[in-house]
Amino acid sequence: MFDNLSDRLGATFDKLRGRGALKEQDVRDAMREVRIALLEADVALPVVRRFIDAVTEKAIGQDVLRAVSPGQQVIKIVNDELVRTLGGDPDEEEGAPAPEESRLKLEVKPPAVVMMVGLQGSGKTTSTAKIARYIREKHGKKAMMASLDVARPAAQEQLAVLGQQADIATLPIVPGQQPVDIARRALESARLQNFDVLMLDTAGRLHVDDALMAEMKAVAGAADPAEVLLVVDSLTGQDAVNVAKSFTDEVPLTGVVLTRMDGDARGGAALSMRAVTGKPIKFAGTGEKLDALEAFHPKRVAGRILGMGDVVSLVEKAAATVDAEDAERLAKRMSKGEFDLNDLRTQLKQMQNMGGLGMLAGMLPGMKKAKAAMAASNMDDKVLLHMDAIIGSMTAKERAKPGLMNAKRKKRVAAGSGTQVQDVNKLLKMHQEMSKAMKQIRKMGGLGGLGKLFGGGGMPGMGGGGAGAPSLPGLGGSGGGDIPPEIRDMMNKKK
């Protein structure tokens, strides 16, 4: 997300960093570039004006222009204003939870009703299932879902299927029942079965109309929701903001859910939404899978926009996806300087579970070059699948003792994995280099000793975080944010 905006801002700030001293005109020229970048990202014009005025006023102050690193000071001012625009506090501590107003308010007499509203095609039904799953996983509460969409064909059946996939209870379908009656039945059913949360997936329309708003108000009157979440498709850009404003004027919204944030190269909807509606963005949908949902953290999103990375979210993602037993076993082996192809395969799977190379590169600071190299090579995460296929085509003995791989065995493995012998050689070379690194780490006192060299804390999510943290192959020692040569070579091949 935010790729184009991030690139434009990065180029502008590179110019500022390269200057030892700044004049007022330098700052104003940079702000003109920032203004153009925000407008091209489809940020609402009033929001752009307020943003530029606020940043310029602070950036042309004497404290900034006479600072030791004025360029860095200006970037910090822009970062802080981005955080405020997104609804956050720039002074919050690193790793702090989302702002209070951005969290779901579920501490009411159960069942807490969460009502989902929005236009047809915005992703309401999928988001309903995602949030219900999130509530169970993050809050430990039992949720039930009910579809009130009697207009769209098979809408109720779709929610029932999603409920089965996510292992979330859904209200049985009664043909012919109207939305308000369904809401009342769902509320009674949730009370009788002691559910903590009731998710109501309401009907949408192709545009905002009187019938839609009347239905929303009737359902809200019957269910008395604790949360009314507007679901908008971020790919619609400025139109998403207009839709949000229309709903804000008619329905007592408590927050916004932005869908398809993984495909939004502009990011204008996210930057405009809070300022235009006055409502916090509570969740961002980052993919089609039911676990592809993130709580919206303004400070972390601002960091991604400015290319500063989001290591906190990366570590949280690691904690949620990495198997603790596998991590513990791998940490023990690494502390002894042991690292075979089974260990490499485990790490490749960890990377896939965490979203693949592109996701990791976008969340690690200084990895813009790596992400750009992947995009330039027109490569996706097939490289991880190919590497896994190569290891899977080996025998258990070969995986445990890679030194057994002679020319004949390599030819057999290449044929079995649908790759070429040179691909097998590159994988073995990558393993060999990593194995050497493990032995070097052992000589330096293991992961704990390495952590002391870097200030005592290790490197969370990059091999120095201990048993619970993943050690990402090739994403910590490649220097300057470049992709490791073995992976780059495989990426550059025509698949």
TrEMBL record:
Organism: Blastomonas marina
Keywords tagged on the record: Cytoplasm, GTP-binding, Hydrolase, Nucleotide-binding, Ribonucleoprotein, RNA-binding, Signal recognition particle
Main location: membrane
Gene: ffh
Full protein name: Signal recognition particle protein
Domain notes: Composed of three domains: the N-terminal N domain, which is responsible for interactions with the ribosome, the central G domain, which binds GTP, and the C-terminal M domain, which binds the RNA and the signal sequence of the RNC.
SUPFAM superfamilies in UniProt: P-loop containing nucleoside triphosphate hydrolases (SSF52540), Signal peptide-binding domain (SSF47446)
PROSITE patterns attached to this UniProt entry: SRP54
Cross-referenced InterPro entries: AAA+_ATPase (IPR003593), P-loop_NTPase (IPR027417), Signal_recog_part_SRP54_M_sf (IPR036891), Signal_recog_particl_SRP54_hlx (IPR013822), Signal_recog_particle_SRP54_M (IPR004125), SRP (IPR004780), SRP54 (IPR022941), SRP54_GTPase_dom (IPR000897)
Compartmental location: Cell inner membrane; Cytoplasm
